[in-house]
Queue: 2 jobs
Job 1
Amino acid sequence: MFNKYRLNFVFLLFSIFLVVIFSDLFALQVLDNQENTQQIENQNFEVFYIPAARGEIFDINGNKLATSNLEPYLFLNLRKINDNNKNIYVQLLEFNFEDITSSEIDEFFKSNDVFTKIINLSEYNTDIRLRLLDYEAFEVFNLPTRTYPYKELFSHVIGYIGKPNKDEQNDFPKSINNEIVGKTGLERYYENTISGVASEVIVQNGDIVEIKPPVSGKDIQLVLNTETQNIVKESLQAGITLANKNFDTINLIERGAVVVQKIDTGEIVSMVSLPDFDPNQFVLGISEFDFKQLNRTKAFNNFAIQGLYPPGSVFKVVAYWLALNEGIFPETALNAQDYIDCEGSLSFGFDDGSKQVYQDWKADGHGKVNLSQAIKQSCNVYFWDIALKIWRTFGNTDSEALLQEYSKQLGFSSLSNIDLPFEKEGVVPDRELFEEWTISRPELVRPEGWLGGDLMNLIIGQGAITTTPVQVSNAYRTLLTGEKSAPFISLDSSDRNIENINISEEFVEFLLNDLNLVTNPGGTAYRSFQIMGDQIFDIGGKTGTAQNAGELNNTSWFVGVDSISNPMYIVVTVVEEGGSGSAVAAPISRRIIQHLRESDLTPVEFGEITE
Amino acid sequence: MINRKITLLGPEGTNIYVIFQYLLFNVISWFTLFNITSELSFNLENILVRQIIFTILGLFVFFFFTYIPISNIISLSTVLMISSTILLIGVLFTEESLGARRRYDLGIFDFQPSEFTKVIFVIFLANALSRKSNNIFTIGLVITNLLLIYIQPDLGTTVILLLLVFFLFFLTDVKLKNLVAFSLLTFTVFFVLLEFNLVNTFQIERITDFYSNEVKDFSQQQSRLQISLGGFLGENLSNTSNIDIFVPVQTTDFIFSSFSKSFGFLGCVVLLGFWAIFGLRVYSLITTTDSNFEKFLLSGFIILLYLQIFINIATVLGLIPLTGDPFPLLSLGGSSIIAISSIFGIINRIFIENNLVI
């Protein structure tokens, strides 16, 4: 039974507690307030921060791509140094560490901090450490060291670290005490997750009164595959070497990028950009000379997400989709199966009486072509005809930007939202953009503004349009799955929204079939894929060769699809100034596809120059 | 029961006083946290935004329990106790953080099951004591839960729960000599565990150090000074210049010290005064209600809340060793707020069922 008297007793007890607390609070806050305030003002605290270990980065097979190891460092407590004992410490340092020069030793004593870092002790005998710790001004703290075991291989994806600047200190407050911030790549994108909270060493009058332990950063699990990454880099390098051998270009060909994406999930299996750099160089601080050297070659650009190139013929799939969806075909063709005559050029007139002639890349023409043949042989005339049809039907009306709408639906001219920082979005030109440019960047547009010719350029991926390799990869993925979502490198990526786009299974089958024609006999990439024998009947792709202004060589593109029966991967290859897509980008992609299919690897060989 | 119309605030109206106190304590917490951050940026990292979100979630929990009849809670008490046991077993398999396994990492916030065990303990014990059921199953569950929290390790919560059991037994008609025997048994078990090295010595050392050493714990020493800094009116009302002081993390276990600094002795009197008034209101309800279960339940809740407050303040004042107990509804922390919201919700329900509705 409940005993009410005992309840009264409990309440009485609690009241006594309350009185005790109140009296102590009263004594503290009212009676001793002045005295304690004085005591606080006299407290001479200093805080010294020791960086926390950053989280480690793992590839899909558990290989460590970035590690954090704690190493013991010797520190000197400058508050314990006075004129009497300074010489003893100087001698101790000179005696024990031959590598330290006397001018460096002088510098140690000039620091304003409580502690000054002397040297990494991990390579020294533990006896030295124990002996030195007998002296009160020596202290040993463990500092984390970042290493990237694969050196250059993941430079652009993982990025590098460095000292935070003002803006970075604002954006990532934890970096102030860690004195380290991710500058690019995943190190930057996941800075808040991957960085820990620095340890606090609280010092009063030179004595350590409290050490608050650090909180390590969180590890990051990636979907990248190191083995694939290796093959991809090798192949891209081989392709670039071949391009230099076969083309007489004004610039050295040295830039390129490859993206390998899984079709079902959108995850990135491999991403390579050349030229690259070794992120380990940044861990201890890179020299200004080395930095400038690397910067000059644009080694810090991740061309897979930042390289803006006109896509050339790989863009033709957009018009392909539009044609089938809207039923818009060349004037003389009724449907996708109908043939038109390609004579190698197209001459046409506009309402204003002007007449123009457009030359296909193949001067003799492709002969009889329908939609499938136009993709297979990369026939420009066929697509120009479609552009003319759009122009004549919708030109100067609200619906004239039909092609642009289709390309934007596939993600062109907007960020793919991959989990990497500083991605570029590129442009898909239309009348509005040209009007805007007339004011802001008049050197880019003709005074006449947006014309039918611009649309004809756009439909074959030329002119003002720019895109990144990752955009192209993701656009092909959308066309093959009907799903538009952000590609991702880490399993922790937050943007997993899927936008469903109306794409029929019938269309996917049709598209795969026609992409397959490209690598088959008569297709633009046949020569590069021939070596794979019967396997070519299960592989598809699209070549692209985008013209550049001036005397620059063409941009070489290839989008590969592996396989046709079971589409698993998209491989997008770009070589800046690499010339014909079928000659350079296609054989690079072929070797990567050989690896993905686990068939025998054959060297990258120069293919056929088509477009 | 008198027929009342169902309202938005409760099945038959709501006790304005309970909801008022609940909101008041929450708002005091907001102001304290605002004083600590002095910035309001709208993201989940901001402690004030987090606390406001927890309060809103807490309000839902409050009203959820307001709609649950006490009879349902009685019948659910064993189920609740078993789920608490399961959650406490599960937490042992989580990743260790700061030397203990106490919480599930749910991404944006952590879930700490022991906060809910405290509430469930009261419900379960109130049911057992009012039915005088002392079978092996009941006792087994209580001891299992205590041990599971003890090995996390979480000595602070274990001590609170042991004191809770002690006080609730004290409120029955059990003979005092039996109670003394119970206490002696607990101590014996504890020392046997100590003898066989089954006790986390780190925590014991902290206690022995506390009472043997002249030098107090750094964070407690600093928090005591920080409280003193508040003066009579607190920093907000008096125009004293802001003096910097090194203090431990203030948002959770040490929040009372920054509350005292901001609002002074006057603030402490007001805050603890409101808690005292709340205790007296519940005391009057205990004497009013006829149900033995409700008597034990309400006493248990009040004892639990007061113990937490006393232990928290005593820690911050440096009177007892560091325990790591949050101050109810003042400390930052989702699990604690949600658990205490359920206490307030159940108390509100008892007020309603006893027709004490304003």
Job 2
Amino acid sequence: MQITGMKYGKQILDTAKFPTPMILDADATLEEVEQLMSKEGKCVVKPVFYGGVGKKGKAGLVKIVDSPIEAMAAKRKLYFAQHLFHDRVIQANGVTFEEFIPASYEIYFNLHVSTKTRKVNFTLTHHGGVDIEELEPGEIYEGTFDPITGLKTYHIIDALTEINAPREIISPLAQHLPKLWNLYNDFGFMMLEINPIRLKNEKGKLITYACDFKAQFDRDNHQWQRLNLPMEIFQTDMSQFEEEINQLRTYRGQSDVVVINPYGTVTAFMFGGGANSAATETLGKKATISSDFGGNPPYDKMYEIAKIVYKHWLKQSNVLLIIGGKANNTDIFVTFKAMFDALKEYVAQNGKPNIYVVVGRGGPNLIRGMGYARDILDSLSISYKFFGYDSSMVEVVQYAKDIDDWMDEIKNQTVKA
Amino acid sequence: MQPEKPFNYFVGINSLDEIATKDSKVVVMNILGNESRNVTPVSHEYSGGNIVAGVQYGRKGKLETKAGDIPVYSRLAEVVKNHYFDTSVIYLPPDAVFHAVTELCHYNSENLKKIIIITEKLSVKDQRLIRAIAQANEIDVFGANCLGVADSWNHVRIGGALGGDRPEETLLKGSIAIHSNSGNFSTTIAEYLKTAGFGTSTIISSGKDVIIQFAVPEFLYAAQNDERTKAVTLYVEPGGYYEQQALEMIESGKLKFDKPIIACVTGRWKSNLTRACGHAGALAGEGDDALAKEKWFDDYFGVPVFNPDEPEKVSTKGVRVASIQHIPLAVKAVFDKIGEKPDFEPVGNLGLKPWFSNDFNLNLPLTLQIPVVEALPPYNKEIEAINKQVGATYLRENMRNKSGASRINRSTFVAELHGMPIIELIEFPYESNILFSLTKMHPEKEKLKFVNFILNYFAKPDEQEIHAIQTAKQNGAIPNEALIAAISLKGSMNELSVIQDYTGKLITLFSEIQLRDLYSEIDYDQLEAAANNMFDTKDKEKPEVVNFLTSEIEACFKKSNILDFAVRYNSKNKVKNQTAFLFAAILLDFSYKSLVLKKITKQTAIELIEYITIIAKSAVLSSNYLFSNSYLKKLFEQKDFALLQSSFTKTAYVALFNEEPNEDALVEFKALLALTLTNGPGTLSAKGAKESVSARNHISTAFVGYLSNTGLAHGGSGYEAIEFLLDSFKDVKIKDPNLTNDKINLKEISKKVAVDYLEYKNNAKLKGELNYKRIPCINHPVFKGKRVNIDPREDFIRKYLISHGINNLFWDFYHELVHSLYEVGVSPNVYCVNIDAVIAVISLKLMWNSYKAGKLSESDLQNIGFIIFLLGRTVGVSAEIIDHRSRGTDMDCRTPQSETKFIS
């Protein structure tokens, strides 16, 4: 759950009364843009990407323009701009017109949970506006503070002093940066980053402006909902399938899914974070999805999950794989009954899928669960092999892959014939 | 004096052997919650009763365990007054966990040493606050999102379900300590280690949230100080710098650790994810993804990832493995390197060992053909036991307004019985659909003669039944009421108990040998020996019917091993009451596959003969020609056994129409009966049966319940349609309604009917009569709105019959009529002819000749139409009775008081 950019960043920062430049939406009129440019004669046009998308500046997707007409031209160019981020091509969904802030100083500030300190750390430098990885160690401050009392003014002053920051920037930053801790602590953030904070000299005083924004929220902390952000900004990197499963997310039982390959041919119910990691890695691109349904999901939840999985993936699959280690608390009978009842329902409505079922599992009520699954598959005439936990989980996944290869081969031969 | 620890934060544990001990006194928060209720008793019993109390906010009581009851308090303040405890386990929902930690620290900071948090989906904020408060109070925390800790030497587990419901199976005493980000892998790795002869000392399920409270540095420190531990196994996922910190501390000398580490890092694929899938904390940044972690370990070990083919390439510091399946071999290799021996002889192996398999004649390549192997104990015994179980077992539930037998398909609007649309069931003869309704499977064609034999045999009415039905009819009873009189005499149907007893024994006999395929080879001698303990033998008489059935079975082309055994065994031993024995075998032959496939319960298979008897008797007792029809008389004499093998569809037809059907009539008749089988569980007829079952009545009384919930209102539109058709054709001479008669101009007739109807309708409207008569069996609330509308169900059946060369003048008329109604302006478009018309036109056609010959009055037509409905529905309702008896609960059909209304 990440967001970047000032479109929503400004809304969030306004909550903490942290100063921001004027920001206009893509539907701003020429006159409004003209007014936005009235102070400095410039305007920054940025594409809006949903989700956590960085390095737009480096990709040349940020335009600084000198007239409203140029701003509108930049809008047309950037409105549906595409950006390669990691291995994904992401498309923009609008632009923002942002007031240009000429800066004497650019500050980088970040609050994040550190696994090194197991606390919230803050990172601060007055050499902002660049990738902080490019800075020398002495130019950047990383420290922590008491998690109960939080980030205080003196932490900022001490940090800036330590990295030899110019004295004139200490006071305005010490005044404003602790507000970000309140925001961070009260609204479910995992990470909050402003890069750059521009310090503009206005009549001899340095005025603070947050000019870009990046955040990651903790989906298990519902406090972020108080920000009233539109849900769609978090759903852009979710497929329809992922969204449907996500509706079932409760604290009882996992229901995490990610689409691995929309054209995959092995659909796997994975139980447990370990199985999720091991099986997804072994299946590679053959997997339609990666999933974790461990944590002893109740029958109703598992049944609904299975229905959604079958609806989206069964038709294209060669192999339905159920994989997990020796469960500690997941009731195998309950989960198997749910999955195979849903399969029976699927077959009643859609006819028999051309699949082979491979199971590798252990845990409470194992044989009762396997027996139930066997009876249903026998009645549906669907082929299967069930392995206990004494067969290597990875070997079982490999066996599913081999079955998949063979079924692909048969299909290809049929097509050729 | 404890040695100074190398951490700048609090760590209370010095050695792994302190983590889970017999001396730990535990309090469980939310002890009666869903998960704890099942897991805590196992932990308590395994650990020798170390849980002193539980808290369930707002409730008091106890949690029963085999190691003694655990007292449950409504708040922690009461626990501290009564019990000493140093460890707490938290099972609360995520939002309550931080509050509970605060509460624990508030009331028991003096004694509390450890908190184990099982709950998943804790917010990161709560995790860091928990850490802060626990650090301040010098408490070690394990989790959240973990399965707790276990000690195989101390025989103690605290927290979650490490080792599942059989911890003693997994937690074997040994020399390996495990720290795993995956709860499941904590147990799975322990299981895998057994295959190389290694047991465990302490197992820690660390959880894999962003903040790991008891992480690798602390674990290695405690492992170093644990004399029992000779090596450690780490299961590591992406995200977090805990492992790097630990390795750097070792290399810098800050942390003394000289035992081997076998580390498994997974999750390379997660590097492109932007949100967690699986463990919340397994989402890496750029420096702590799986690849980075692999490198940390490889650099530390100084050797590449473990290759099982080159086990010598490990270091004394340990080795990284690519997958958990390599852990046992890697541990063994490292032990060889450091000159240590495994803890015990290896147990099993990790090769592929299918416990269940069915390839359904798939031509799998040899490499994929892995034979089923016997599962390891105790699972082998469990498999043996379930293989002996035949028949479905259902969880009982409220079945009011629910059915596992019938439904109306929401997309096709066709009623379905056991998943089959009734329009597809029209292709099966009545007798076949009877068996389908009872066993959820149609009998094999070769077995139909036995089905018919049994139906015809048990259809024979006895004197009491005849007397009851005659008396009822004399008193003006309509067909269902007359049937009630006869069937309500049946009670528990004691006369069938011998057959039922034999059926039950035969089920036991064949399930004991785990018979799944009716045509597989069986060991006759073994079965005979078992049967000798079950059946009384040496019957003196051998009834003729036994001779007949024996020869028929022997001649049967598809002789199942059940029938084969029954005939051989009876011929040799002469079972007491041979007829009942052979009937039982035949009945079991009908139902055994359904039992194996868990489609029906064992009880249903035993009671099959009761349903068959009532259905068969209902079909003939409705007849007005019981004593006058020669075919029925001969049938009931039960001397011509070959005649008993005649189609029961024919028997029902003769009983109804007092004449033998031709082939076309049989096809139409069976279709008619199939169409009335069911209209879903919401019908009055089904509800009558279900409510009677719900009151725990005998099967026969459930049929009475159904019959008393039917009446002339049933098939009302069908009868109105017959009336309408008779009126429309009153001036028309029809020789044979099956022939396309050129002399009859259906278009002209339909035009006249449409014009007359338009006039009638307009007059009625002029008079302000809004409730004027509608033409029955046309139009449908769903199949409407197009220029020409078709009810696909009606269309399917019409085409089916036409494909059999069967025409129907009345049906054709209906199709002409809907066009005429449109043409004269009665309807805005061409209405469909709906499914009710099918029943009317086929019924009328079948009765036409008798009606025209004066053998049947209009009142007879109505009665026959109603009986046709009863013939079909009796069969469909049998399925509802079975379903409700198998799955429902007593009194589940009551209407809750809140749904009832008083109308003044």
